[in-house]
């Protein structure tokens, strides 16, 4: 299947599921439920939930089976964007081409909306995966992994180092930010899909490496787009140059794709997704 | 046992467990792990985790068995205080007799610390309750209940209505705030202890009613202490008078205690805790 066709179809599936899983905008108190929907729709590329699905499919699972977990990961991603955009953190007025949550709904509601999405993500994982033949112990496993991946030594830890506002970040700090701020959730997305679809340990190891490599590649591409934005940002391209960034990114994508060999044709979409990341590198 | 002796003993048990369950202050990145400990220690009365334990004991369970869940509830409570104190929300500079998290660590770290505590609370429930003979499906049940109790139609919903900053709140709004902003977590604490200790449906129903009633009573007492603090706050005593508050609170405590009849002597601590709430009403 063509990558664009695949991405469009999966995105639609995720958008429908999200609309179903989150409370209606009219639910009391309406201001927060409106804000939750405002932040979620229309969404971005739904890259992370699509990875959950593609990873499950690579080990013979079905999209339907992992939709609640995929949506949970999109809620987590959205919560992290809302809190990152806050005036006290990155102070971004725009997100996905419209006013960021705090610009639209006020800072207090934005903080609480992020909190609510994070909370709902855990409810979502417990509520829906059991129906699809996933064991209770697997559900618990997923919740634990997710909480670790997005906690103070994971995604939040990466954000903490990112906002140090240093004149010059060390290479170690930049790598820590990349591995954790964006990398951990991307890796968790790939692992979640694989675990829910019953991947064996060898395949799970390969997909974990795949997730780690594309997570880093994804962030390097993002950095290359933002290179002029802020001088003191811990930006890979700004720090190590565009040429070194491109080479590093290509190496990561190559490594990611090599890990897909055991999956044969079933790994094709993950391969195309990795190639798609490389194609986004600005010329 | 004397109430004070009981509370002191249980508080020490909880403090020790918390110190063990959360990452060391030196864990990388240190600024957030220091902030997590700063907000957690020294804590308040540990009222909510003590309720988890006392509720488990009322149905024949052991404190040790429910400690991880009790600590998870204290993390949730602490996260909610940190976010409530933020300049954009209640703008409180002091908490538990020292500078609030954002005054001490800065706003960005305070936001992320709240996020990290909320996230860790879910990890804690999955990580520790299985060892104590609690089934996986019960762990999932607890996680789901907790996420609902503290979500956009629970604790966060109550906070959303609380910050409407209206000239005059309706009775319905004030009751909604009480039931959800403080009540839902207190009720969840009581239910969590009971469910983990294997309460039968009849006893769980009684303890749920107990939790609901003391949650409301607790907030009415708090409001009676804060009555002069802010004119536009949705304060029960300010709105309905101190006499009506006292009567309502006494009625709630009476109802709570009545629900303990089937527990006999085992319910004595919960009874004393309810009486202790009534004694805190300012004269």
Quick overview:
By secondary structure, chain A is an all-alpha fold. The first copy, chain A, is built from 13 helices and two strands, in the order H-H-H-H-E-E-H-H-H-H-H-H-H-H-H. In chain A, helix 10 runs antiparallel to helix 12 (242-258).
How is this structure best described in words?
Two copies of one chain form a homodimer. With 283 residues, chain A is mostly helical. Chain A has one domain: Farnesyl Diphosphate Synthase. The first copy, chain A, has 13 helices and two strands. A two-stranded antiparallel sheet of chain A has the order 1-2. The longest helix of chain A has 26 residues. Chain A is globular and about 50 Å long. The interface between A and B is large, with 50 and 50 residues.
Spans of chain A of 5+ residues with little confidence (pLDDT < 50)? Answer: none
Q: Name the CATH superfamily assignment of chain A.
A: Farnesyl Diphosphate Synthase
CATH class of chain A: Mainly Alpha
Order of helices and strands of chain A: HHHHEEHHHHHHHHH
Termini Cα gap of chain A: 27 Å
CATH topology of chain A: Farnesyl Diphosphate Synthase
Find the count of extended strands of chain A (DSSP E, 2+ residues). 2
């Amino acid at each position: 299947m063509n990558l664009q066709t695949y991405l469009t179809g999966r995105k639609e599936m995720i958008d429908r599921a999200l609309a179903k899983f989150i409370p209606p905008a009219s639910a009391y108190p309406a201001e927060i439920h409106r804000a939750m929907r405002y932040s979620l729709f229309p969404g971005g590329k739904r890259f992370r939930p699509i990875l959950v699905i593609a990873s499950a499919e690579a080990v013979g699972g079905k999209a339907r089976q992992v939709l609640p977990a995929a949506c949970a990961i999109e809620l987590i991603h959205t919560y992290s964007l809302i809190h990152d955009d806050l005036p006290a953190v990155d102070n971004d007025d725009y997100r996905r081409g419209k006013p960021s949550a705090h610009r639209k709904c006020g800072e207090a509601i934005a903080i609480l909306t992020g909190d609510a999405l994070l909370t709902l993500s855990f409810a979502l994982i417990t509520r829906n995966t059991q129906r699809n033949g996933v064991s209770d112990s697997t559900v618990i496993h997923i919740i634990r992994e997710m909480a670790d991946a997005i906690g103070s030594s994971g995604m939040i830890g990466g954000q903490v180092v990112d906002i140090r506002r240093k004149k010059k970040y060390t290479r170690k700090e930049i790598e820590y930010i990349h591995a954790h701020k964006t990398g951990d959730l991307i890796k968790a997305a790939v692992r979640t899909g694989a675990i829910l679809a019953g991947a064996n340990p060898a395949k799970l190891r390969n997909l974990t490496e795949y997730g780690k490599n594309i997570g880093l590649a994804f962030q390097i591409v993002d950095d290359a787009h933002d290179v002029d934005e802020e001088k003191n940002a811990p930006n890979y391209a700004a720090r190590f140059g565009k040429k070194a960034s491109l080479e590093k990114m290509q190496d990561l994508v190559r490594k990611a794709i090599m890990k897909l060999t055991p999956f044969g044709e079933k790994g094709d979409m993950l391969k195309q997704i990795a190639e798609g990341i490389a194609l986004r590198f600005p010329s």
